[in-house]
Amino acid sequence: MDREQEEMQFLGLFGIYAESYKLIFRWRKIFSQITLALILPLSFIFLTHDTVSTLLHRRIKFKEYHHLSDPASFERVVYLLFKALYFTCILVFSLLSTSAVVYTIACVYTSRVITFKKVMTVVPRVWKRLMVTFLCTFIGFFAYNILFAVVLFWWLFNISDDTIFGQIMFWIILLTYLIGFIYMTIIWQLASVVTVLEDSYGINAMIKSKNLIKGKIVVAIVIFFKLNFSLVIIDMYFRLIVVYHWRHLGALKIIALGSLFLLLLLKLILFVLVVQTVIYFVCKSYHHENIDKSALSDHLEVYLGDYVPLKAKDVQLEPCRV
């Protein structure tokens, strides 16, 4: 990175974007290799899911409408199995891609020699720690949704009516849920970076992420909305143009348009992963926590199996006196 650690705290929305673009452009070779190996399959699975699930869903609805099959039809079983396979593949490639990108940027920051072979060696080891963090996050989201369901049922059986008060309460409950959901998502994304770059993982990584994001939550929320809006736009137009109107397109147009949307999606995913890593360094700088490059370099060396793991107190990033 071109900027000194103390300067990172002053980066806003466009500064974070610019720093991310610089990283991708300067290290485009290694990022291109990571994209082809991990992000390309992730993007392909995402778009393929849109196509296959839509076709299966249409077939199920057609048979139900004409009473050609019972609820436990073969197509419904295939649909559920396909969904399970999709979520499994998305989870695996998402964690692998996160591991590779975060590790690469950390190596750039510490001026370590980085090669694609070294990244792919490290990824499976980092992936295990990320899985623990994901499972803790999943439990948190599950409990949060249960709480939302309880509150919603309370509203339904107690104050659900056509009065203005009942409608206002519904929108307050819904808005509160959405704000909490977005906040927890941002915490999880930053916790994934913490899991790779520090000793903490699981609940401890989430707690550290929660403390780090303080002071930069507004910027993080704006970035979250902008990048997720871009994802929604890509997915929506892919469905409208390719999935729903494929009969009106020739084979060459389908391939060309599909390739275009695939290219846009994989570039967006790479940019998202780089941005969330840059946000980590911005937050560390904002809280004046000095990142010892030699300690971080030693921490990264542990993943290669060529270095004796340091103790927690040695890798811990201590606050910097200003």
How does this structure look, described?
This protein is mostly helical. It contains 11 helices and no strands. It has helices at residues 5-8, 13-26, 28-65, 74-109, 116-158, 164-197, 203-212, 217-243, 251-286, 293-302, 312-315. The longest helix has 43 residues, at 116-158.
Q: Could you spell the SSE succession in H and E letters?
A: HHHHHHHHHHH
Q: Please state the overall shape, judged from the principal axes of the Cα atoms.
A: globular
> How widely separated are the two ends?
22 Å
Rg value:
22 Å
Count every helix, treating DSSP H or I runs of 4 or more residues as helices: 11
> Sheet with the most strands?
none
* Structural class category: mainly alpha
Low-confidence stretches: 307-322
Mean of pLDDT: 81
Strand content: under 5%
Question: How many β strands by DSSP?
Answer: 0
Helix content: over 70%
